[in-house]
Design brief:
By secondary structure, the chain is α/β, with parallel strands linked by helices. The protein has ten helices and ten strands. The chain folds into two domains: about 1-80 and about 170-253, P-loop containing nucleotide triphosphate hydrolases (Rossmann fold), CATH 3.40.50; about 90-165, no CATH class. Helix content is about 35%, strand content about 25%. Strand 4 (about 60-65) and strand 5 (about 70) form a beta hairpin.
Length: about 250
């Protein structure tokens, strides 16, 4: 791992019985990157995401964040080190307001217990921070609405605000555009592109148009292994990548 790397995976594997979902994967992510992981279905992308976020244990290999070994740390410990993830399936409190969802995350970051968050919700500083985050993701007009009233795309925007409330250094986005309309995807792409440089973004995404517009670095997975990492142009031009997605006959034709 070089001084410039924020995230490093070395020889990381995850086996489910005899099935090797991930096999000896190396990956590095530099600070400030907009780094995308792509690959056909079954490539191991979601498994890799789970290992980095801490929701899945590794079978072998090591994971370092800013030089610290986090391979055996819990999700909460990783969040404390600045590693925050949003997942395909919503984890919002749908009966609470948009503001309350973000406020809860702000108070968690500040160390407030879940049982007292409503009592301290009037604190001006916490509310101001939550409102600022909602303005950043384009939900400034929806503060007082229940989260369940939001569209699918708006819920994804809210999830990004909740994640940002943890003050992440490494933001993991698991298929953030899944189920979105083209207009919603465009808004989300603009939102991610506008995040401050101190927030490193690592995303898994099937929408390749979004990936190639947003990412400065792309890693391609195939059958549980690392296939290629490069710039978007390098990845698009790669015969290996084309074969992985299309098959040898289609590429050859």
């Amino acid at each position: 791992m070089t001084v410039s790397d924020l995230l490093e995976l070395r020889g990381v594997s995850r086996h489910f019985g005899s099935f090797r979902a991930l096999d000896d994967v190396d990956l590095t992510v530099r600070p400030g990157a907009r780094h995308a992981i792509i690959g056909p279905n079954g490539a191991g992308k979601s498994t890799l995401f789970g290992l980095i976020s801490g929701t899945l244990p590794t079978t072998s290999g090591t994971i370092h964040v800013d030089g610290r070994d986090v391979t055996r740390l819990s999700v909460d410990r990783r969040v404390g080190l600045g590693v925050t993830a949003t997942f395909q399936h919503s984890s919002l409190f749908l009966r609470e307001t948009v503001l309350e969802n973000v406020l809860l995350a702000v108070l968690r970051r500040a160390g407030a217990g879940l049982g007292v968050w409503r009592k301290v919700s009037a604190r001006a500083e916490a509310i101001a921070q939550a409102r600022t985050l909602l303005e950043r993701v384009g939900l400034s007009s929806r503060y007082d609405e229940q989260a369940r009233a939001l569209s699918h795309g708006e819920r994804r925007q809210l999830e990004v605000a909740v994640a940002l409330a943890t003050e992440p250094r490494l933001l993991l986005l698991d298929e953030p555009a899944a189920g979105m309309s083209p207009a919603e995807t465009a808004r989300l792409t603009e939102l991610i592109a506008a995040l401050p440089a101190e927030v490193t973004v690592l995303l898994i995404e099937h929408d390749l148009d979004m990936v190639f517009e947003l990412a400065d670095t792309v890693t391609v997975m195939h059958l549980g292994r690392h296939l290629k990492t490069g710039t978007p142009d390098e990845v698009r031009a790669s015969t290996e990548v084309q074969t992985a997605y299309l098959g040898p006959q289609e590429v050859a034709s």
